[in-house]
Amino acid sequence: MSAGVAPSRPPRPSAWQSELARGYRRPDELLAALGLDCSHLPAARAGHAAFPVRVPRGFVARMRHGDPDDPLLRQVLPVAAEQDDDPGFVQDPVGDLSAMSTPGVLHKYHGRALLVTTGACAINCRYCFRRHFPYGDAHAARHQWGPALAYLRGRPELTEIILSGGDPLTLPDHRLGTLAAELDATPHLRRLRIHSRLPIVLPERVDDAFLQWFTGGRLQPVMVLHANHASELDDSVAAACDRMRRAGVTLLNQAVLLRGINDDVASQEALSERLFAIGVLPYYLHQLDRVAGATHFLVAEDRARALAAALAERLPGYLVPQLTREDASAPAKTPLATPRHG
Ligand SMILES: *Cc1c(COP(=O)(O)O)cnc(C)c1O
Ligand code: SF4
């Protein structure tokens, strides 16, 4: 490269980008990889047409071969129940569209704002509210982050920025690094938080280039992971968490309470124990957002409360996630757990 010429992008994709590109994107290849017969195919195809199947191979490798009820598979394989209609399950259950003042900026809570950085994800979770979200214009990466940054700079009451999506870590490091540098230079900010499922479903993403922009600056780095079941947390995920921890990242996890997947005390206890073993504290356990197509994942609120109470009787307090619900106009997540001793 000659002097004065701007550095070009790396000529080859990084390892995680190749792994991302290799993910399964068709129901038939997912079923074949797990040795499942094609009786599941018609329902899977119908769901796929509405919200495509997408799952990294490394995540599929943690599923039980030949088991259609595997708790990881059920998060990603469309089933017939997705076609069930329920007027209580809507397109935008958390009111995100009306809360977006600047494209890509959600500033609903005191002191922190959330950037919808991109609509893309490495995995398509069937219970996700994102399945209907019109991301076309509503993300912050457009125009070199300009409007989003202008908004954040003009709000001195903000101390923390949350990179969310979609999944922010599907974006390349050169774009995220540019954003991180701008945030670093914004004096009122103290923390940079990322909400991502990539370190779980594609742990290759936690590489040197990522750690450099995430942990190399002034802002305290916080990573909120998203794992729902202990089986998601294999040795490759443990290694990714270890790298982040050694680089000074505070690691937390949010999970979604999902019927037939993690709605029993044993599953939740195993999840908390495994998270702590790999250096992650449980943070939130979210009651499902009532999004169209996800009725079959709902756990009734009284059952959810009973589960949280039972969990609190079995684990130290720091391993009990906060059971919460998201209400469109509330100033914070709404806690659902009732006091144990009352
Ligand atoms: C969930 C959420 C946050 C983060 O809430 P914490 O309680 O700080 O984890 C921030 N902004 C929006 C819009 C959210 O939905
Ligand atoms: S935003 Fe999170 S829950 Fe939704 S599809 Fe992406 S990874 Fe899954």
Automatic annotation (TrEMBL):
Question: Which residues carry the post-translational modification N6-(pyridoxal phosphate)lysine, per the record?
Answer: K333
Name of protein: L-lysine 2,3-aminomutase
* Reactions that this protein is recorded to catalyse: L-lysine = D-beta-lysine
Which cofactors are named for this entry? pyridoxal 5'-phosphate; [4Fe-4S] cluster
Q: Record's CDD domains?
A: Radical_SAM (cd01335)
**Gene3D superfamilies recorded:** Aldolase class I
> Domain Radical SAM core, which positions?
107-322
Q: Which residues form the signal peptide?
A: none
Q: Does the record carry Metal-binding as a key word? A: yes
List the molecular function annotations (GO) for this entry.
4 iron, 4 sulfur cluster binding; isomerase activity; metal ion binding
* Alphabetical UniProt keywords: 4Fe-4S, Iron, Iron-sulfur, Isomerase, Metal-binding, Pyridoxal phosphate, S-adenosyl-L-methionine
Family the entry assigns: Belongs to the radical SAM superfamily. KamA family.
PROSITE patterns on file: RADICAL_SAM (PS51918)
Source organism of this protein record: Aquisalimonas asiatica
Q: Where does [4Fe-4S] cluster bind?
A: C121, C125, C128
